[in-house]
Design goal:
Elements (H helix, E strand, L loop, with lengths): L17 H13 L8 H13 L3 H5 L6 E4 L2 E6 L16 E4 L2 H6 L1 H7 L20 H15 L10 H12 L4 H8 L6 H6 L6 H8 L5
Antiparallel strand pairs: 1-2, 2-3
Helix pairs in contact: 1-2, 2-7, 7-8, 8-10
């Protein structure tokens, strides 16, 4: 009798360790090795790190998608406004509060500096195969991570998303709230029938604030 092999492979995507996350964060914000030469690379990666959003969701953002409700800033992740914009599913349309660290680092100043156009990352061109994310994905996976010394099987840009989900879960954030933040469908009668409106920006903001580098 043969034992069935586990479908999981060494190349399966996985989260960054806390040490790897801190190394990436330090390089993106302080640039000690000079690996970050474009603001779009810096902020695209930081958005992935602090929101858990998908690569294309970040790279297709319009300036108008960075919105404010009272004193709360958030990303309005949507497929509206352009025929080339897309979301993976209905649950992908969501509002993701900006992590306080993004604000502290000057993300809103970066947004303001781009207001002469419509797209936040105008230097990311659209591809029928990869949407808007090919440029950032290739830079991260083929240049930034290898040169930083953290490229391993399973560690890619998408690992930032895995990292957010993992760290929020470890910080005791309820799974349905994590699902709202990263755009996964909530399941069960309570979530699908009784809590159709989802969670408030205050609730989501408090939860995402538990992510620490």
């Amino acid at each position: 009798m043969k034992v069935k092999k586990d479908k999981a492979s060494e190349s399966e995507r996985k989260p960054f360790t806390p040490d790897q996350t801190r190394l990436i964060y330090n390089e993106l914000t302080e640039n000690p090795s000079g690996l970050v030469r474009k603001d779009s690379h810096k902020w695209g990666m930081l958005l992935g790190m602090f929101t858990g959003a998908r690569l294309n969701e970040i790279c297709q953002l319009d300036i108008a998608d960075v919105q404010q409700d009272g004193d709360k800033w958030f990303l309005n992740i949507t497929d509206e406004g352009d025929d080339t914009k897309s979301v993976k599913s209905k649950a992908g349309r969501r509002k993701v509060p900006l992590h306080p660290e993004l604000v502290r680092l000057g993300f809103l100043d970066f947004v303001e500096s781009r207001r002469n156009g419509s797209r936040l990352f105008s230097d990311y061109s659209y591809s029928a195969n990869g949407g808007y994310g090919r440029n950032l994905g290739r830079w991260c996976n083929e240049s930034f991570l290898p040169k930083l010394g953290v490229k391993q099987p399973g560690l890619v840009f998408h690992s930032l998303r895995h990292t957010v989900v993992t760290r929020l879960g470890q910080a005791s954030v309820p799974e349905p709230i994590i699902q709202c933040i990263v755009g996964h469908a909530r399941s069960g009668v309570t979530q699908e029938v009784y809590l159709r409106e989802g969670y408030t920006l205050d609730q989501l903001g408090e939860a995402i604030g538990r992510f620490n580098v």
